[in-house]
## 1
Amino acid sequence: MEKHLEPSKLDIKIFDKKNSRPFVEASLDNKEVYELRDDTMRTPLEKADVFEQLLQTENACELWIVPVIESTSSFTQSLSEEKASALFGMLSSFRKNVQRDRTFLVLGPDCSASMKEKVKELGYTILPCEEADLQNVTVEY
């Protein structure tokens, strides 16, 4: 059975120019930025299903995906899910750095405040971002 999906109002931007700094190069005037984390132990299919639900938003927002490399221990400490933290703790014993995609929700004036609640309902962790921290986000892979 084929699904018919309406075009999403969620604009997805993927940053792949190595060493670029998306938050320095783009204007974020009148916008709020939050990092989305899925620290759950969902399977890839479950994650895809939840992401599809996120795409069905009626809000005109942006989702920025930025590949980064960071120390495994730093990443492990930021995890809120105990099982995921333990798993990556094991990984840090033999892997110094981890490559991952950081996902940011960029809310402008056209995006409803209910978007943050929808993201939380879907099980994502939503972390407010400070502008100074965003200035240091660099595309690495």
## 2
Amino acid sequence: MSELASTNIQSRPPEAYKRLMVACFVFAGIALGVGTALEFPLVAVGLYVLGMAGGMMIPYTTNYTLFDERDDTIHQRASGVTLAVFGWLAAIVFPSLVALSTTPHFEWGPVTMTLSITTAVVYITYGLLLGYYR
């Protein structure tokens, strides 16, 4: 019994474990959103934590290598394109909002201020980390 309990699960191919991880993470996000929308925030957070913890534990239940340098390359490319897309959108949208704020048609509110500050923090963090890793 102890030998069986100490062995990792190997009954499925590595892709099945990756799909299960994604399913756990998607469940966590949906549970958080739905639970919050239905005004059950503690249930939402509890289900979110369970889903995220389940997804993070999956690599420890198998001896398979689930992620390798190909996955790292894909992740780096996706991250770079995401930052570039949002960077270009910010470069177009925020100067437009600044210009519009001089007219009676637009006024900075809590949402647009939060969005602008968050965008600035993301790109300042990126710039600092880029400098650090260089």
## 3
Amino acid sequence: MKSALIGEVCRYYADDYIIWSHNGKADRQRILKSCRPKPDLMTQRYLFVEGAESGEKCAIRSFLFGFRGYAEVHSFTPGGRFEKRIKDLAPLVDKALELLRSRKNESGGGAPEK
């Protein structure tokens, strides 16, 4: 929500997608080409999780010079460095992997203890 002294100016939304399994650059290009603007949606962010750093930089596509929104494609290697634009998504990926690893190390087949 954007606000000013007079109150709320506008309200818009963002969609975030974390892509764990992909075919690298080909899928990045396919997503950028197939994205379409959606009503009230300002940003569509796609985060490609990679096993090793590919060196791919962020790619951004604007719809009608940004007036209809943006599509952004980012790459991230868990535990590695990340751009400011994904400072909220990268720690989520790291935490999800940490949680997954801790559950794999637990014994007892996942049955809750009483």
